[in-house]
Amino acid sequence: MTQEAELPGKRVLVLRPDELSPNDRKMWREIRTESGAPANPFLDPEFTAAVGRVRPGARVAVLQDDGSPVGFFPFERGPLGQGRAIGLGVSDSQGAVLRPGIRLDARRLLRSCGLSSWEFDNLEAGQGVFVPHAAEELASPVVDLGEGFERYTERLRAKSGSFLRQTRAKERKLARQAGEVRFVYDALDPGALRALMGWKSAQYRRTGRRDRFAQEWITRLVGLLGESEEPECRGVLSVLYAADRPVAAHFGLRSSTVLSWWFPAYDRAYAKYSPGLVLQLKMLEAAAADGVETVDLGSGPARYKESLKTRDLRVYEGAVVRPVPGGAAHWLGREPARAARRFVRGRPRLAGAASRALAEAGRLRGR
Q1: pLDDT surpasses 50 at 329
Q2: Using N-to-C axis directions, what is the helix angle for 190-206 and 348-365, rounded to 10°?
Q3: Beta strands in the chain, from DSSP E residues, in sequence order
């Protein structure tokens, strides 16, 4: 299913992800490299292809100049042409992949794609086409490992020596009281992955948040990416065991140089040992040895992220909206709630009360 349209000086082909040719994928990666942006796996064609297998509305706009691709814009299309970033809700880096120097008007691009709106919640910095339409700028903490794990731990000690010391003491205590501690960076353990999903689902419900693993498409997407062998976009399951029993795990997505912190969770029966932090330090060490230069911890507040990060990236939340009926429907359905969230996030005491209310709602639902 191919849809053609025109932008000033550009031809636009709208394809399903499975209609991309091997040359399209090659050009996508070449253009991404030329842009100088981090090799984030969420903006690799393999991620879009995987989403296309579980989300029927997934599409890719291929921008051509004189018959050659100069850009790729992955998206999902819903009713009334309302669009969203590919994999919205689980994608930690979003936007278009454009050859340097390409200038576009966001609303004209949407019209060429048959979209009335396009929503994003983790738009990466440097997306000049879409950043003017952002409603909010967010911090996305990262850990820099390019100088090696030892150099990173030196910086961590200088910032918070007690954090590193206490975490390693808890690892030793876990070994003494629960059994031999073992860590596997890239595990092939379906049982551990099922345990991780169960722990994470319980965490979502406990904190009053939507259970992502109750959505079949997300569970299927994780399974597909866990089977991927693409070096620029594949799943990595890291597991911490005590006496050969999984006590913490993380399923992330990696490229050759970037690892995205995606789905971490632990067995609450071992909470006093902070197994999630033990796992994360071991994972950072193993990732650095495996050539990872950056671990993207993702946007959203968390105390452990502040302890571990070396700096923040900027990401953006918002939507491009065209003045058409579908655009109006998007605005009415989304913007009042987005404005309310911004209001709460800007007021720490109110945000704390909202978090406690969500947790109480989760507790009541769990009865």
Answers
A1: yes
A2: 110
A3: 3-7, 10-15, 58-65, 68-77, 82-85, 97-98, 117-124, 134-144, 181-184, 234-242, 245-254, 258-266, 294-296, 311-321
Residue 54 has pLDDT above 60, yes or no: yes
**Other Cβ atoms within 10 Å of 15 Cβ, number:** 19
Token readout for 302 is: 């968390």
Does residue 167 surpass a pLDDT of 50? yes
- State the fold for domain 146-292: Aminopeptidase (3.40.630)
More confident: 82 or 6: 82
Instruction: Using alpha carbons, select from 336, 330, 334 the residue that is nearest to residue 82.
Output: 330
Q: At what angle do helices 149-178 and 275-289 cross, to 10 degrees?
A: 140
Question: What is the distance between the alpha carbons of residues 176 and 281, in angstroms, rounded to a whole number?
Answer: 19
The angle formed by the CA atoms of residues 315, 321 and 325, to the nearest 5 degrees, is 155
Residue with tokens 């949407």: 110
Position of tokens 């819903």? Answer: 78
Looking at CATH, the fold of the domain delimited by 3-139+314-365 is given as Aminopeptidase (3.40.630)
- In 3D space, the residue among 312, 308, 313 whose CA is nearest the CA of residue 156 turns out to be 308
**Is 12 exposed, middle or buried, given 0-12, 13-18 or 19+ CB atoms closer than 10 A?**
buried
pTM for this structure?
Answer: 0.88
* Separation of alpha carbons 117 and 82, rounded Å: 5
Residue with more model confidence, 335 or 233: 233
Please, what is the angle between helix 45-54 and helix 216-227, to 10°?
A: 140
Type and span of the H or E element at 126? none
CATH 3.40.630 residue ranges for the chain: 3-139+314-365, 146-292
Q: What are phi and psi of 25, to 5 degrees?
A: -65, -40
pLDDT digits (tens, 9 = 90+) for 254-308: 999 999 999 999 999 999 999 999 999 999 999 999 999 999 999 888 889 999 9
